[in-house]
Write a structure and sequence with these properties.
single chain; 5 helices; 4 strands; two-stranded antiparallel ribbon; alpha+beta; BAAT_C
């Protein structure tokens, strides 16, 4: 319904509608996009951007996603990994704090290993 609304808007360049997610929102963007029949049929491209030193969501998760795409004979993706970058890649000068509390893990997790060294 939301996609149809956007496609019907006069200021949207049809048929180009994208979904963007940051952090857990990246996973949610993929899940939401899977409900769209154009995505299910493989009629879209994926740009996957990951921080190489992400201590929250390791790059191996995105690499596993790429493997699944390859296993299903999909090549409509591009993976960019930024070595040494921590969890949040946006905007400049973030994160404004060294770590975040992960309730699931019951501990504080730094955004990258450089920050972890500074915390200790």
């Amino acid at each position: 319904e939301g996609i149809q609304y956007l496609l019907g808007h006069p200021r949207v360049r049809k048929p180009f509608v994208g979904i963007i997610g940051v952090s857990k929102g990246g996973e949610l963007a993929l899940l939401i996009s899977s409900l769209c029949h154009q995505v299910e049929r493989g009629q879209c491209d994926y740009l996957l951007i990951h921080a190489g030193d992400d201590q929250q969501l390791p790059p191996t998760l995105t690499e596993r996603l790429c493997k699944r795409l390859r296993d299903h004979h999909k090549s409509n993706y591009r993976l960019l990994v930024y070595p040494g970058a921590g969890h949040l890649l946006e905007p400049a000068h973030t994160p404004h704090f060294y770590a975040t509390y992960q309730a699931l893990l019951c501990k504080c997790c730094p955004f990258c290993s450089d920050l972890q060294k500074k915390m200790n």
